[in-house]
Design brief:
The complex is a heterotrimer of chains A (115), B (218) and C (272). With 115 residues, chain A is an alpha+beta fold. Chain A contains four helices and three strands; from the N terminus they run αβααββα. Chain A has one domain: Arc Repressor Mutant, subunit A, CATH 1.10.10. Chain A is 61% helix and 14% strand. In chain A, strand 2 and strand 3 form a beta hairpin. Chain A is globular. Chain B has two domains: 69 residues, Nuclear Transport Factor 2, Chain: A; 112 residues, Immunoglobulin-like (Sandwich). Chain B has two helices and 13 strands; from the N terminus they run H-H-E-E-E-E-E-E-E-E-E-E-E-E-E. In chain B, the strands form three sheets. In chain B, strands 7, 8, 11, 12 and 13 form a five-stranded antiparallel β-sheet that branches. Chain B has a four-stranded antiparallel β-sheet with strand order 1-2-3-4. A four-stranded antiparallel β-sheet of chain B has the order 5-6-10-9, with no helix packed on it. In chain C, strands 1, 2, 3, 4, 7 and 8 form a six-stranded antiparallel β-sheet that branches. A four-stranded antiparallel β-sheet of chain C has the order 6-5-9-10, with no helix packed on it. Chain C folds into two domains: 96 residues, no CATH class; 138 residues, Immunoglobulin-like. The chains are: A alpha+beta (115), B alpha+beta (218), C alpha+beta (272). At the A-B interface, helix 3 and strand 2 of A face loops of B.
Chain lengths: 115, 218, 272
């Protein structure tokens, strides 16, 4: 996977992950399942990108992990978004809004508004 | 920790806790070791400070590997001191200090530096630049000979104006009962480069008790 | 059925394959644990949706949907830095070593260390033969090099020898590496009448030569207690002139007169 593609993909995936966590703590597979459900099965987050993104966010202090025992007896690793993570989420949301505005403007034929 | 896996987050927290504990543990370690010094020079500074000397400049250093000791000869103004520091493992400790004043009217003064059976050393400080070698004369008893005779040890081994006169008792088995390391029982002499005697200290008062003849026996 | 070109892999095999690309070995266990948990969750979800599916097939499907093991491994490797990881491990081990050393070395020394840290200063010892005439209150402190001198307690006594002044001299050294100063022997005293009370060092020097006159007073100094940040000495000035009203302690170091602490005496000279 080229580095540029990785960034593009991880940019929007990071946004989605942070957004999911802002609604409450979740464990890995729970995030995959919820995203599928929310997007009505049109969007499947590629599982192989989830954990590198979570580990990067944890290393940078945007999320924290802890362990909780599931009713099945297995210990699950839950992720929790920190204040730093919520700030990062706002940043990413703004980035995404700007990005989609620009794309829409190009598609509509008009020159992009200079910021 | 044996049951739970070590994760990067746990490792980081553990390292931070260690960093917080480190200064406390170091303080405990220093206290347990009774405040040693990391360098010989550090111990030297402490020895001088504790005796209220100097701080002076180091003239030279004598090493005694047998006891892991260094003796620094330090000069501060007219005062010359012998400062001991000793090594325990990689760390140093402060030792003792003895000093002597070199007054302008006395060309030679002496100070005992080391007192060991096979290696005693006297420091002789010279005020006179003409003096190239010094001699220490002291009373001894020869085996089987009655009465005290004069014995002398000569040295031109010097660093700047500090001469070192050493004596090895075990090398002179024919001699017994000699106060090499008793300051009041010496008579100092200074010789110039050609070997002529240019200074002799006054007769020590203690010699009156020995009833010495003024002849020399080497 | 899975397409034939997808490699059939169990959860364990997949995790091992991923970890092959992660250089920092200490994190292999935690990565394996997390991926295994996820893949088992996925496997359970698949079985829930299709109870007739063989267990092994559910496992293969779950692993397949995780994607390329090498890509995942390389990406994780870029996040789990070996430099930082090994530093954290060795730093922790080093601190543990310091802790163990400190404990092992401190244990036999516990008594000495506790005594050195004790904050309570000693008090002057007055022998039964002396009668305390007055408690004195000298003020002030004198700093010199690494030491600060002060007199927290002083008394005047009368005994068979005559008039004596006993002072507790506190030598403070905030730098614990300057502890145990060897100064009390060179402390001498002088009263306001010009009488001199020689230090221990001077007295010993004269004793080995001409001798010291019995009628003369002297200044006897000795170390009473040693702590990390202060050393206490007992200074006793003996045979003090009955008419003296002030006593000044001096420290004479190698030709330099470096200390002046004055003790006002009650009685004598007419004025208190």
């Amino acid at each position: 996977m080229k580095k540029a593609d990785k960034n593009l993909l991880s940019g929007s995936t990071t946004l989605l992950v942070l957004s999911l966590l802002s609604a409450g703590d979740k464990y890995g597979y729970e995030m995959i399942a919820e995203l599928e459900a929310k997007s009505d099965h049109t969007f499947t987050l590629k599982e192989g990108t989830l954990y590198p993104i979570l580990h990067t966010l944890e290393r940078d202090g945007a999320v924290k992990s802890y362990e909780k025992e599931a009713p099945t007896g297995r210990t699950r690793k839950y992720y929790h978004v920190t204040k730093k993570g919520l700030r990062l989420l706002d940043e990413k949301k703004e980035e995404w809004t700007e990005f989609s505005k620009t794309v829409n403007a190009i598609l509509a034929g008009a020159a992009p508004a200079l910021a | 920790m044996a049951r739970r896996t070590m994760t990067p987050a746990r490792r980081k927290r553990r390292a931070i806790r260690a960093a917080v504990a480190l200064p406390i543990l170091l303080a405990a370690l220093v206290l347990a070791l009774d405040f040693p010094f990391l360098t010989a020079r550090g111990a030297l500074a402490a020895t001088q400070a504790r005796y209220g000397f100097g701080p002076g400049e180091v003239v030279t250093r004598i090493k005694d590997s047998r006891y892991s000791t260094y003796r620094y000869i330090v000069r501060c103004g007219d005062w010359y001191a012998s400062c001991g520091v000793y090594q325990r493992g990689p760390l140093w400790r402060s030792g003792q200090l003895m000093a002597v004043e070199s007054r302008p009217e006395t060309p030679l003064v002496s100070l005992i530096i080391q007192e060991q059976v096979d290696n005693s050393t006297i420091l002789v400080v010279s005020n006179d630049p003409e003096i190239a070698s010094v001699e220490v004369r002291f009373p001894v008893i020869y085996e089987g000979v009655a009465g005290w005779k004069l014995f002398s040890v000569r040295s031109s081994q010097a660093v700047e104006n500090c001469f070192f006169v050493t004596y090895d008792e075990t090398a002179h088995t024919e001699v017994s009962d000699f106060p090499f390391t008793q300051i009041g029982h010496h008579r100092l002499r200074g010789y110039d480069r050609d070997g002529s005697l240019i200074y002799e200290a006054p007769v020590p008062e203690a010699w009156a008790a020995y009833g010495l003849e003024m002849e020399e026996v080497r | 059925m899975l397409p034939p070109e997808v490699p059939h892999r169990t959860i364990g095999q997949f995790c091992d394959h991923v970890c092959m690309y992660v250089r920092f070995r200490p994190d292999h266990d935690s990565i394996t644990e997390e991926l295994t948990g996820h893949l088992e969750d996925h496997k359970d979800a698949l079985l829930e949706g299709d109870p007739d599916m063989p267990l092994l097939e559910a496992e293969y499907r779950a692993v397949a949907s995780m994607g390329d093991a090498e890509a995942l491994g390389r990406w994780l490797d870029s996040i789990h830095s070996p430099v930082l990881g090994w530093f954290q491990i060795w730093f922790f081990r080093a601190v543990v070593l310091v802790g163990v050393l400190a404990f092992l070395l401190l244990l036999p020394q516990a008594e000495r260390a506790a005594q050195q840290l004790a904050a309570r200063p000693p008090e002057l010892e007055i022998s039964e033969n002396s009668r305390v005439i007055a408690a004195l209150h000298p003020e002030g402190a004198w700093s010199w090099q690494d030491y600060t001198f002060s007199i927290p307690q002083a008394v005047e006594t009368q005994d068979w020898d005559g008039r004596s002044v006993k002072a507790l001299l506190k030598i403070a050294h905030p730098n614990p590496w300057r502890k145990e100063p060897v100064l009390p022997g060179s402390i001498w005293a002088e009263d306001d009448l010009g009488n001199r009370y020689d230090s221990m060092d001077t007295v010993n020097e004269l004793l080995s030569g001409d001798g010291y006159p019995a009628w003369r007073g002297d200044c006897h100094g000795s170390t009473a207690a040693r702590f990390l940040f202060a050393t206490y000495c007992e200074i006793e000035v003996r045979k003090v002139d009955p008419a003296a009203a002030k006593l000044t302690l001096h420290l004479d170091r190698y030709g330099e007169d470096v200390l002046w602490l004055t003790i006002p005496l009650e009685g004598g000279g007419g004025n208190g």
